[in-house]
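Cont'd.
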Amino acid sequence: MKSLKLYLVLTLVVLALLVAACGGGGGSEPAAPSGGDSGGSEPVTSPVDPATAGTITGRVLFTGVAPEPEAILMDAEPTCQALYPDGAFAETVVVNDNGTLRNVFIYVKAGLGDVQFPTPGEGVVLDQKGCRYIPHVFGMQAGQDLVIRNSDDVLHNIHPVPTVNDSFNVGQPVKDMETTKTFEEPEVMIPIACDVHEWMSGYAGVLSHPYYAVSGEDGSFTLSNVPPGTYTVEAWHEVYGAQTMEVTVSEKGAAEIEFTFTGG
Amino acid sequence: MHSAEGELSFWRKYVFSTDHKVIGKQFLFSSLFFFIVGGLLALLIRTQLAWPWEEIPVVGPLIYGEESGNILLPERYPALVTMHGTIMIFFFIIPILSGAFGNFLIPLMIGAKDMAFPRVNMISYWVMVPAFLVMVASFFVEGGTAAAGWTSYVPLSARPDMIPGSGLGQTLWIVSLLLVGTSSTMGAINYVTTIVTLRAKGMQMFRLPLTIWALFITAILVLLATPVLTSGLLLLLLDRTIGTHFFLPDGGGQVLLWQHLFWFYSHPAVYIMILPAMGMASDIISCFARKPLFGYRPMVFSIMGIAGLGFIVWGHHMFQSGMNPVLGITFMTSTMMIALPSAIKTFNWLATLWRGQLHLTAPMLNALAFVSTFVIGGLSGIYSAATPVDIFIHDTYWIVGHIHYVLFGGSLFGVFAAIQYWFPKMFGRTMSDRWGKVHFALTFVTFNCVFFPMFILGERGMPRRLADPYNYNFLASLQPLNQFMTVSAYALALSQIILFANFFVSLYRGRAAVANPWLANTLEWTTSSPPPLENFHTAPVVHRGPYEYSSPEVSEDWLPQDRVLGGAAAD
Amino acid sequence: MGGSLPQVSTFAGPIDSLYNVILIVTGVAFVLVEGILIVFLLRYRRRPGQKAAYVHGSRQIELAWTVGTGFMLFLLAIYQYRSWIDAKLNLPDESQAQVVRVSSNQFEWNAIYPGADRQLDTADDIKAPINVLHFPLDRPVVIHLESVDVLHSFFVPALRIKQDAVPGRPGRLWFQATQAGEYEVACAELCGLGHYRMRAFVTIEPQAEFETWLAEVAARQQ
C-alpha cells in the first residue's frame, strides 16, 4: 500500500511536468502569425483582368561621379576570397556601362487601392555564395516564402533588421543548407546582414502586391500586368535614397518612366 | 503507530504534505527526473562535439525538426549548454542534496518529530514546481530557451538581437531561478531553525553527524548568498523588461557588475553543491570502515572554513574578465587557501580508512569514488587558481573537466552513495547491492573516460561552448578524442539505467529492510524503516557522538547514539 | 602546456613552466592520496571477528598536515605573482611599443593601427581586413581591447594571452612575440551563434615586413 501511494506521488510529478511541457508548447502557438495565410490554402487567382492590364517599363539613369567601388578584404575567409581573383568589391553603388544604376528597387507605392493579391506559392531564393547575397536587392510579397540557401562551405547567419516585421537570426553551419522564412507585413526595405561577415549586406522589399522590380545590368525594369490607373512609383537605392513619380497606365497601355540618380 | 495515517486525506498525505519525509521524497523524485533531462541534454552536446552538424537518425528529426534541416543549429547549441548546466545545478544537484536528503535526514538524524516550520517546508517544494514548469516551458517559446550560458553573462543575456534565446526564453529562465531561490531560502530557514532548536535531548552540536553539520553550514551559505543572486536576477529582469541599464553599457551600466553579483552567489553555490555530499560521504565511510571518523572536529571546522573562504574567492572566475589585475592577486591567494580545508577533509577520510574494517558495499564504493575523484577535481582547481596558468586554461575544457570532477565525480558519487545508503530508511526496502556494484563499476570507469580527457582538451586550449571546434587548425586533431569521450558518455548514460532499474524495482520488490540494516550509529537507524509519521516511537535521548564504531565499551562494533550503557537493559 | 602549440611570446616559457611546477606538485599529491587510498582498501578489507581501531584522531597529525599543506599552497600562490604581474600589470611604455586597437563584435576581430602620427582615433588610422591581425616580432605590442556589442574573449593560444573584451570598459593587454609565423585567435567567451567561428589569424613578422604589410593595407583602403 505504501508503495502504491509512492507510485502515485511519482506519477503526479511526472504528469505535472508533462502538462508543463505540453502547456508550454501550447502557449507558444500564438506566436504563429494569424494574418499571414501563406499561399497554399487560398486560391491563386489574380484579381487583375489580363484583358485590360498594361505595363510600366523604364530605366534608372545615373549622372555625376560614381564613387570608387569599395574593396572587400576577405583575407580571413579563404574559401570565399578564392572566388574573386581580381578582388571583391562592395555592391553599394554599381553603375552599369551604359550609364544606368543597378540594384534600384522600383515598386508601386500607392494607387492600387485595397485590391487583395494572392501570395505566390513559389518562394524567393536568397543565395549566399562567395560570402555575398545573391541577389543583393530583391522584392517579395508579404507571406511569401523566402528560401535562404547557403552555397558556401562556411557558417553564415541570416539576420534581417526589420522595423515592422519580426526579426530572426538563423545560422546555417553547413553547405547547401536551406531555411525557409517569411515576412508577414509589407516593409520597404529590410536590411539583411550576416554577423560572421560584416561586408555581406542585402535588402528585401516586402510588398502586398506583385508590382516591383530591381534594375539590372542594363538599368531597365518592367512592371507587367498592371491594372489601368494612376500610381505612385518609387525607386529606392541604398545610398541615394528614394524618388517617386506619378504614372498613369491606360487600358492595355505601356507607360514608360525614367528615374535619374545623381552621384558625387 | 500509524494512528495518524487514517486521518489525513490522500492530498494532505502525499501531495501537500507537511511531513518532511514525504517532502524529501518529492524533491528526490523531481530531481531524479531532471537528472535524466540534464543528462539527455549532455548527450546532445556530446554528439555535436563528436560529429558536428551531422543528422542524428531518429533523434535529429524528432528534436531539431525539418525546419532546422534535422540538425542542431548553431544558435541552439548555446541553449543546450545553458540548459544542461542550469538544470543539473538548480534542478538536480541542489534539490537532491538539500531538498531531498536535507529534508529527509535532518529531523531524523537530530531526533526531531519534523521540521520547525512544516508548512514553510511544504511551500518550499511547491514553489519549486512552478519553477520546473516555467523552465520546461521556456524550451517551447519563440526564440527557444535561454542561450547565454548558465552564467547568463550580460550583455548577451539582455539583448535578444544578439542571440534568439535571449528573448522570452531568458525571461522565463530568470523567473524560474527567482522561484528556485525562494524555495532554497525557505528550506534553508527551516534547516537552520530546526537544527538549532529541535535537537533531541543530549544532542549537543558536537554530537551531530557530519551530514547535519554540512547541511547546516550549507543552509547558512544559502541564506547569505541567495539574496545576492536574487537581486542580480531582478536587476537583469528590469534591464530586459522596463529598459533600465544596470548592466548595459550604452546607458552607463556595468557589464562586470553582473559577473560580481552572479559569482558572489555562484561560488558559494559550488559549495552548496558539494558540502552536503561531503557530509554524507563522511557518515557512510565511517560506518563502513566500522571506525570512528578521524578528526571529527577538524572536519567540522574545515566545513566552516570552506564556507567562510567561499565568500572571498568569487573573483577567481573573473581573472581574465578585464577586472583590475591587482584583485587577481588577492583572489588567487584566497583561492589557493580554500584548497586547504578540502585537503584536510581528504586526509581525514583516508585516515578514517586506516586500520578500519572496510565493508565494500555499493554505498561505500560510491563514497570512496567520491573521495578519489574529488581529489582530481580539487587538484585541477589549483591550475585555475594560479592566475598565470589560468590565462591559458580559463574558459577552456580544463574548467569543464574541473567542475565535472567536483560535481559529477564528487557530488554525484556522493548522491549515488546516499541514495543506496538511505534507501532502506526511506522506503522500507533494500536495493540490490550486487547491481549497485555493477552500476558503480561501470559508472566509475566510463565517468573517467568522459571527463579525464577534458583536461587534455583544456591543456590543448580548446575553448568551451564551441559548437564546432574543428574549424580551428589547432583543434582539428582533437576530434577523435572527442568522439571517444562521446561514446564513453553514451556508455555512462546507459549505466545509469542500472541504477534507475535497481531503484524502481527495489521500490516494489526489494527485500524488506530492518530498522538498522547497516548497523549504523546515528538516530535515523533507531526507528523503523520507513519511520512513522512523527519519526520516533519515543523521543530519543543522545548519550554520545555519532561515530562510536568498534568501541571497546561494547562487544559489537557499533554503538548507537541513544543506547544507554551500564544499565540492565542495554537496548 | 599547449600540446603541440609553439611558445611564441615572452610569457609562454614562464607560464608553461608554472604549469609544469603545479603539474609536479599536484601529481605527487595525486599519486600519494590515491596510492594510500588503494593500499588502505587492500590492506584493511574486513576480517571476520576483528574490530577496527578505536581512534578518533590526532591533534599532532591534524596540525602537521594542516600547516604543511597550507604552507605549500601559500608558497604556490606567491610563486605565481611575478608572472601575473608581468603579464597583466607591468604594461610597457606605449611610446616604445606597437599600439593596436582590437575591436570585437559579433563575430569578428578588427585590428586598427595608428597611422604615421602614431595616434589612434585620427584620420590616418589603418583598419586591417576583418579577422586579420599582424604584429611585429620582438617588440612589445599593446592591445587596446574593445567590444561594441557583447562579451568576447581575445585568446591567442600560441601567445598564451587571453582577456575578455568588455563592452563599455576598454581594456589593455600586452605581449612580445618571439617567433614569426601565423597563429589563430579564438573567441573564448560565449558570444552568440557564431561564437564557435569567431576566429582570426595572427601573423607575427619582423618589423620591416610588418610595416610593408601595413602600408599595403593603407593603400588598399584608398
